[in-house]
Write a structure and sequence with these properties.
This protein is α+β, with helices and mostly antiparallel strands and about 425 residues long. The protein is built from 13 helices and 7 strands. The strands form 2 sheets. The protein has a 5-stranded mixed β-sheet with strand order 2-4-5-7-6. A two-stranded antiparallel sheet has the order 1-3.
């Protein structure tokens, strides 16, 4: 709302500059061109006051103070007062440019709340009524009545055309500002809903990790007892299988412990300093060891290297992307890391069937997936939101021939611990 008010106030400043130019041109044409004597000094003083008002408004826009509805109302009220003063000096209500009151009221109806708009209508109406009684009559040169009637009609047409053009120009721009505000609010509501969804997922994951702790511990004890039994120790094949079972069980316990630690760990506490190249080398090595892909093309071209904080959330983002690519393309997965000025660029490629058009349109929304199973699509949803929390962005695209690639762009400041967005 604040940004919209600032944009609308800037539009009022631009409109006031046009009013200054228009008033100067009209005064000169009427006074010197048509020969109707006007009080040049007081009218010039009003123009000067409008210029000073615009200067003060621009200074106000440069500071960080919020622009409220009252502020916009006062700006429009000052414009109405300036118009009233000029009309008073040039014939009052008989001046054809009295139609410019409609422009001020129309702007008020678009920019202000209902109460302020009606207040502006009342004040403009009172000013119009006062101009019917109190005004400085114009000193007209000699001529017949028809000539001056024609001049009045011509002035009315110019006033109508000017008012109509300004209304179309500025109401259109103000409406666009309001639409941008509404779109921004809708985006904030969507982000809030997504973050609420993520919180619920996190609570379920944490609860599941707690629940899994007991059966995993029980299985570990039972498996340890079995391995000490003579009947299993004598059978080398069973002993090897139980050793593999124990290794996988330990890995499950490590994953559960990691979930619990991550869910209760405060950001910035117990951080591990590393570099971009080391972080990604270690992450790829860990993922390769646990998933054993058929072929992984890894290109770490990040130069020059930069110090960052080892982030468990970013590591999980990478694993989710790797897992999705591996599931789409078991035979080959490509991964590259590069640097673009102060940004980190990560690209994950696969040789699978690619994304369907409707998936690309709703990329990053929950439960948007080509996998026909319950709960699928959460991985990319969590990836997009985790990266957004770090101030980055995620995009997806299909290759021209086959496969797809997902690009993650992150500001290095978000990874260095100096600029956290979450």
């Amino acid at each position: 709302m604040e940004m919209t008010n600032r944009k609308n106030l800037m539009l009022l400043v631009q409109l006031r500059w046009l009013a200054v130019i228009g008033q100067v041109a009209t005064i000169l044409i009427v006074h010197y061109g048509i020969g109707i004597t006007l009080p040049l000094e007081p009218m010039a003083a009003i123009v000067l006051l409008l210029i000073l008002l615009n200067g003060a408004t621009l200074a106000r826009l440069r500071n960080e103070k919020p622009i409220s509805n009252v502020g916009l109302f006062m700006e429009l009220l000052l414009d109405v007062a300036a118009l009233t003063a000029q009309l008073y000096l040039s014939g009052g209500a008989a001046n054809p440019f009295v139609l410019l009151y409609v422009l001020q009221i129309s702007l008020g109806a678009t920019l202000l709340d209902t109460r302020s708009t009606w207040a502006l209508v009342v004040l403009a109406s009172i000013a119009f009524l006062l101009l019917m009684v109190f005004n400085r009559p114009l000193l007209l040169p000699g001529g017949d009545a028809d000539e001056f009637f024609n001049l009045h009609v011509q002035g009315s047409f110019i006033s109508f055309a000017l008012t109509a053009c300004l209304l179309v120009l500025y109401i259109t721009r103000i409406t666009r500002n309001l639409q941008e505000r509404d779109a921004h609010l809708a985006d904030l509501r969507r982000q809030a809903a997504e973050e609420d969804h993520i919180v619920r997922i996190g609570l379920l994951a944490s609860g599941a990790a707690h629940e899994l702790g007991t059966p995993l511990a029980t299985l570990s004890v039972i498996l340890g007892d079995w391995r000490r039994m003579p009947v299993f120790r004598k059978n080398e094949e069973l002993a090897e299988e139980m050793a593999e079972m124990q290794a996988q069980l330990d890995r499950c316990k490590q994953i559960v412990s990691g979930i619990l630690v991550s869910s209760g760990e405060a950001r910035g506490e117990g951080t591990i300093r590393t570099t971009v190249r080391d972080f990604f080398d270690d992450a790829v090595l860990q993922w390769r060891a646990s998933r054993s892909p058929a072929k992984l093309d890894y290109d770490n071209a990040f130069e020059p290297d930069a110090a960052i904080v080892s982030d468990a959330a970013l590591r999980q983002v990478l694993f989710n992307l790797f897992d999705n690519a591996l599931e789409a393309s078991p035979a080959w997965v490509g991964f590259s890391v590069s640097r673009q000025e102060d940004k980190l660029v990560v690209v994950v490629r696969d040789a699978g069937p690619g994304f369907r058009p409707e998936m690309l349109e709703s990329f990053g929304k929950p439960y948007q997936s080509s996998k026909n199973r319950p709960g699928s699509g959460l991985g990319l949803f969590l990836v997009v939101n985790a990266v957004r929390k770090l101030g980055g962005m995620v995009s997806a695209c299909n290759n021209s021939r086959r496969g797809a690639f997902v690009t993650v762009t992150l500001p290095l400041a978000a990874l260095s611990g100096t600029d956290r967005h979450g």
